[in-house]
């Protein structure tokens, strides 16, 4: 039995057309063309709720063809054109953004690699300079050690020669004078003399007497020359 409606077919047709306009009007052209199953489900729910008080139950709705008015078709075509334009702009913007990101990443990696190369070069140069400094220091240390060993060997040789030769105090005094002469010939403006210089000069005086052939006596004083002989008295 049907209640509250005189012409069920006309009423449900008008109801379907009205609700179909509402459903399609809330959708884009792409959704309307590709989501027909969703339109069918929505229409079934709306019609089933509206016809329930008539004693009618709607179990299935199928949209076979959509023929909107001309103005709606024009609006949908404009929407489709705008949507395609928007998608093209979005795709172009995304492509530009991705290209910029890729370019920025490449620049960043290039800067990082360049900085890493400069850092490695600086490290290698610093290590090379340090190695050169160590080599120069080792050479200088070896030179100083060799010179010191040579000087030590020379000192030992001189000391051995002096010790084996058993020099006299007179010879030592002469060598001492020669050393003083060498010091005096240098560029030094000050010459420091030892405190026992008087004793050394005394020894030099004794050496000078040896060279001239005059030897001091044991008492430290020279003998007086003999007095000339007196003439004998003459006889008258």
Question: Could you describe the 3D structure shown?
Answer:
The protein is mainly alpha-helical and 236 residues long. Among the domains are: 67 residues, 2-Layer Sandwich (Tetrahydropterin Synthase, Chain A); 36 residues, no CATH class. The protein contains six helices and no strands. The longest helix is centred in the middle third of the chain and has 96 residues. It is rod-shaped and about 165 Å long.
Structure, briefly:
The protein has 236 residues and is mainly alpha-helical. 71% of the residues lie in helices and 0% in strands.
Task: Describe the structure using short key phrases.
236 residues, 6 helices, 0% strand, disordered C terminus
* CATH class division of the domain at 1-67: Alpha Beta
| Helix run count | 6
Number of strands: 0
Could you tell me the CATH topology label of the domain at 1-67: Tetrahydropterin Synthase, Chain A
Write the layout of secondary structure elements.
Layout lengths: L7 H18 L3 H6 L1 H16 L18 H96 L3 H16 L12 H16 L24
Helix pairs in contact: 1-3, 5-6
